[in-house]
Amino acid sequence: MSNDTTTLLSLFGLAQLADSTLPVGSFSFSLGLEGAIEAGMVGTIGELEEYTIGALYGAAECDCIALLEAFRSGESGDYARVIDADLRLMSYKSASEQRSMTLRMGHRLADLLRSIAPSSLSNDFYDWIRRELTPGSYPIAQAIAGLTLGVEERGLYAAHLYGVAQTILSASLRLMRITHFDTQRILRKLAPLCERLYNHYGELTLEDMTSWSPSLSLAASLHEKGSGRLFMN
User: Fold this and answer.
1) What's the domain range around 83?
2) Are the C-beta atoms of 74 and 140 separated by less than 8 Å?
3) Looking at residue 117, what DSSP letter applies?
4) Domain-embedded: residue 116
5) What's the mean per-residue pLDDT of the chain?
6) Do the beta carbons of residue 181 and residue 222 sit within 8 Å?
7) What is the pLDDT of residues 46-94, one digit of tens each?
8) Could you give the CA distance from residue 119 to residue 97 in angstroms, rounded to a whole number?
9) What pLDDT digit, counting tens, does each position of 154-165 carry?
10) Which residue among 33, 158, 168, 185 is least crowded, i.e. fewest CB within 10 A of its CB?
11) CA–CA dist 20, 36 (Å, integer)
């Protein structure tokens, strides 16, 4: 019998971070899906899948780069670089809905961490946010959580992308004629894509970040001005 408790602790921490019941408020957002549906951009299962794929690419080209940079910098003790990753990430969030979502969720995760896994790092991160030394975006909070809970890098990357997909697909159940079987099929199909995104974007730096995700930005903008209000904007 294996006594590799580190691996089990890492997996447990990963499961906790990826849990849809993690109280950070992701259920309140649709990542622009509500606006996309109202504008006629998404109406079928195939279009929902394409929209989710676009969101994953957008995350890989921006949020995930900052997440990995913060995780690696935090692991080496370079906390100035962690804050730099946070500041740079927020500079790429042009839509107010995107900014609101990542800050609300980031602050809630930071507050949760100091309660369930208090450490010098999680306490410091919360204090940086309180003193406005760093914005406290969700991907950076996830990096701090990964370091605090002992989650390895690839698992943390998967947890973030899973959260992006799950936020959209969970919202689709309340916005479209779709079943849980449909959303689970889409999630299963997206798993190989997450592996490819890590292999392709995993070594990029903050200087390589981009926010070129026109469909998501358009959907977010439409939601801000639209009549649909089931989800936060």
Assistant:
1) 43-199
2) no
3) S
4) yes
5) 90
6) no
7) 999 999 999 999 999 999 999 999 999 999 999 999 999 999 999 998 7
8) 31
9) 999 999 999 999
10) 185
11) 23
What the block records as the tokens of 120 is: 């010098």
Nearest to 74 by CA among 131, 162, 142, 17: 142
Cα dist from 171 to 74, 116, 124, 149, 231, whole Å: 33, 28, 33, 28, 8
Higher pLDDT, 139 or 230: 139
Domain membership flag for residue 99: yes
| DSSP H or E stretch at residue 154 | helix 153-175
- Give Cα separations from 48 to 19, 34, 66, 165, 169 (angstroms): 22, 11, 26, 10, 8
How many domains in the chain? 1
Sign of CA dihedral 209, 143, 186, 45: negative
CA distance 170 to 131: 34
Read off the amino acid at residue 138.
Y
Q: How far apart are CA 167 and CA 62, in angstroms?
A: 17
We report the CATH number of the domain holding residue 65 as 1.10.4190.10
**pTM recorded for the entire structure:** 0.89
Distance CA 16, CA 13 (A): 5
